[in-house]
Design goal:
Blueprint: H1 7-26, H2 38-55, H3 63-84, H4 92-113, H5 116-126
């Protein structure tokens, strides 16, 4: 992890994000089905956000670990959906949407957004 002055805050926010993804992934499905493949867009967006978030906390040479961890999270959520019996089913297309979000998020980090947490952290520490 990058040397951040507000490290406990970043860790708490990161844990909350992961908890929200786990809760959202494993809670019973919505009573009203989503239209078309909108849920694939949700998967893509969530994992894109997670990739941009976590690449902000780690140096560039660790982005592959961020990607690997998020891909593992996505696969684990799909497997757990299948085995928990909560009315959710595993969908390989969800895993593909998750992976696409992770890859784009990591690509964005390399191109532009990587390390943004250090700038925000410096501002928080000053104020």
């Amino acid at each position: 992890m990058l040397p951040l002055g507000q490290k406990p805050l970043w860790i708490a926010a990161s844990a909350l994000l992961i908890a929200l993804v786990v809760f959202g992934s494993l809670s019973p499905g919505p009573a009203v089905p989503t239209p078309g493949n909108f849920d694939k867009l949700e998967h893509f967006g969530v994992y894109l956000f997670l990739a941009v978030w976590f690449t902000a906390l780690y140096p560039r040479e660790r982005y592959w670990l961020v990607a690997l961890g998020l891909l593992a999270l996505g696969v684990a959520m799909e497997v757990l959906q299948q085995v928990t019996g909560l009315g959710r089913i595993a969908d390989p297309r969800d895993m593909a949407a998750n992976a696409a979000g992770v890859l784009l998020g990591c690509g964005l980090a390399v191109a532009a957004t990587g390390g943004w947490a250090a700038r925000v952290d410096a501002w928080l520490t000053r104020n």
